[in-house]
Amino acid sequence: MSNPMLESPLLPAFSKIQPSHIETAIDQMLADNRKKVEEIIEGLTNPSWDSLVAPLEEMNDRLAKAWSPVSHMNSVVNSDELRDAYNACLPKLSQYWTEMGQNQALYQAFNELAQSEAFSDLNEAKQKVISNTLRDFRLSGIALNADDQQRYAQLQQKLSELTTKFSENVLDASNAWNKLLDQESELEGLPPMALAAAKQMAEAKGLNGWLVTLDFPSYLATITYADNRELRKEIYTAFATRASDQGPGKGQWDNSPIMTEILELRLELATLLGFSNYAEYSLATKMAETPDQVVKFLRDLAEKSLPVAKQDFQQLRDFAKDNFNVEDLQAWDIAYFSEKLKQEKYAISEEQIRPYFPLPKVLDGLFAVTGKLFNIEIAEISEFDRWHKDARLFEISREGEVIARFFLDLYARDKKRGGAWMDDCRVRRRLDDGSLQLPVAYLVCNFSSPVGDDPALLTHNEVTTMFHEFGHGLHHMLTQIECADVSGINGVAWDAVELPSQFLENWCYEPEALALISGHYQTGETLPQALLDKMLAARNFQSGMMMVRQLEFSLFDFCLHREYQPGKTDIQAFLNDIRRNVAVVTPPEFNRFQHSFSHIFAGGYAAGYYSYKWAEVLSADAFSRFEEEGVFNLQTGNDFRTNILEMGGSKEPMELFVSFRGREPSVDALLRHCGITG
After folding, report:
1. CA-CA distances (angstroms) from residue 669 to 258, 544, 554, 620, 623?
2. Considering 215, 240, 265, which residue would you say is the last residue of a domain?
3. C-alpha to C-alpha distance for 410 and 388, rounded to whole angstroms
4. DSSP string spanning 176-243?
5. For 457, which DSSP code?
């Protein structure tokens, strides 16, 4: 019987992927690839693109197309069987990539190609692939002795297992907690939609009453709107102590030893390769040049933002005290009283806006906005092989020609990882037969499901999240590059990869775009001018507090990876120290935020969380050109597409930015957009 994972249709056959097939299929593929590498090396005389790089790209792409749907399903329809199969493959894949990165014959062949006359005849994208590959050989320990290479392989394998375990602990701890309430009065203050969702959640589990969970839409609604302070404290405690030594799940999925081990192994890996610390190692593939440059960038932003953040927080404390007699503002009160203060100042709340952002209208509007900007059309495909009934598929065309496809999976549910992300399913590349493989993306969010017959209604924050992820998607899908390693988001410096996503968020605040993305779910009326004015006025509400919160996360991540010393660094004490310098809100002692900080302990943001702020400078400055020339200016949109979105990782990000903006980026636009400066 043929194994569906070894076949390569246009799109993955999700329904045919059985956990019992996965390990066998991956084993087979890795064996085939190893054999193929031997054949490539044996047949080489004068290495060329066609004899060396193209066959490696072909073989790696085949592996990526098999593994991508497995990894995706592990995130969105997790099960014990799938998790076991996924975890069984991780060490094998880690071992394989380490072998590739330490293959001396391959390294010599790439080196020979880079120094040959043929190199100068290659286009820029192909040259970039070769120079990136040589850099990655060095970062894989090609220059190490045999014992150190073996240690490098062990470190990579162990880190792969630990980061996956970290993520699983967060998911399991999140799924383990819920609270059933049998009186609606206990949820006083919650908007009707959140109440209906809690009721629907209880019914789905065959229970009577209202169920609140740690799924983000449920958590956020409760912490923001529940008048019941004890309930807010209870859900905050459960959320802030997930996968830790504190709270209701105390010790059950504790990530404490995992974080320590991850940091120790990362430091060992970095020093093995000749770096002083993991932060230095991390920057080898980023725009930022030195750890000092990153820390200075973050501390300068903090210095400019702290006075505004302190004002924000003092205003909140005064408001809670004067209006609600609350003298001791606690962590579980901040979202609640912030929402009340926002309503008093601007007479607006996310819930008032929600009816104007039904999901179908927002999606149509998102497609209309990006269509105008980048000359594309987007259409839904109804028949395809789904991993879940909520999954949807779309295709992107330009002037009648299909150029990309993407999957959408938008609702929170059990067994689905929290958060929002874009990932690649297929990468754009020119195939051996001359045909073009089109890019395919996964776009995943965790919004509240539709309740009853009504469509899902989004908060403006959720609308912004969807635009953000779609920006990543466009970076992947609109690429014109045909070499897999620098096509789309591949090969893009990590601190520049957030540029297109943060850039696209700006249209969520532009009146011309809001007319396209908003429409009352019952009447179709677009967001009224009065509400729009209030929403725009409230745009920078508590932006100082939000800025320093992100800087707290960024400094914690980067400085921890720069300064960590095994046996000496206490992670909690380290975080507390960062907070003393940049935070205005001091969380309770039991707070264990770091235990679920998946971006740095399970995602790709280790010593790289600063990338959000770094790229925000780029995106704000890029958008300022649209502010000058018109938010739907065809030429400006075309320039952004051709200079940024289409180029993938084929050139250095600063070069691409300067091509678009005509100069290097300035931090001024970001500070202005955030209301930090006038």
Report:
1. 40, 15, 20, 6, 9
2. 240
3. 11
4. H-EEEES-GGGGTT--HHHHHHHHHHHHHTT-SSEEEESSHHHHHHHHHH---HHHHHHHHHHHHTTT
5. B
H/E stretch holding 592:
none
Residue 152 lies in a domain: no
Considering the domain architecture, whether residues 435 and 526 belong to the same structural domain is answered as yes
Domain-embedded: residue 159: no
Strand-pairing partners, residue 424, are 441
Q: In this structure, are 389 and 444 located in the same domain? A: yes
Statement to judge: residues 618 and 491 lie in one domain: yes
Stretch 220-239: mean pLDDT, rounded? 98
Co-location of 509 and 590 in the same domain: no
Q: Is residue 233 domain-shared with residue 369, that is, in the same domain?
A: no
Residue with tokens 């399970």: 602
Q: In what order do the strands lie in the sheet with 392-398?
A: 377-381, 392-398, 401-411, 440-447, 421-426
Single out the residue of 617, 465, 613, 600 nearest to residue 551, CA to CA. 613
Burial of 320 (0-12, 13-18, 19+ CB in 10 A): buried
Binning pLDDT at 50, 70 and 90, where does residue 1 land? very low
Helix/strand/coil (H/E/C) assignment for every residue in 324-388: HCCCCCCHHHHHHHHHHHHHHHHCCCHHHHHHHCEHHHHHHHHHHHHHHHHCCEEEEECCCCCCC
Q: pLDDT tens, 369-411?
A: 999 999 999 999 999 999 999 999 999 999 999 999 999 999 9
Cβ atoms 278, 267 nearer than 8 A = yes
Runs of H (alpha helix) within 449-594: 460-477, 499-505, 511-517, 529-537, 543-563, 571-582
In this structure, is residue 311 part of a structural domain? yes
Q: What angle do CA 318, 319, 325 make, to 5 degrees?
A: 85
What is the Cα–Cα distance from 253 to 250, expressed in whole angstroms?
A: 8
Radius of gyration for the chain, computed over Cα atoms and rounded to the nearest angstrom: 25
The structure tokens listed for 383 are 């028949």
> What's the residue count for the chain?
678
- 386: domain CATH number is 1.10.1370.40
| Last residue of one domain, picked from the residues 240, 264, 290 | 240
Please give the full DSSP string across 504-517, using - where no structure is assigned.
HHGGGG-HHHHHHH
Domain ranges, residue 339: 256-348+543-609
Side chain identity at 20, as an amino acid letter? S
380 labelled catalytic: no
| pLDDT score at 9 | 72
Residue 210: closest CA among 220, 222, 224: 222
Pick the catalytic residue from 57, 339, 469, 646: 469
Q: Measure the CA angle with vertex 579, ends 577 and 583; round to 5°.
A: 155
Q: For residue 8, what pLDDT is reported?
A: 56
pLDDT band for position 656 (50/70/90)?
very high
Per the domain annotation, does 111 fall within a domain? yes
Do 361 and 313 share a domain, yes or no? no
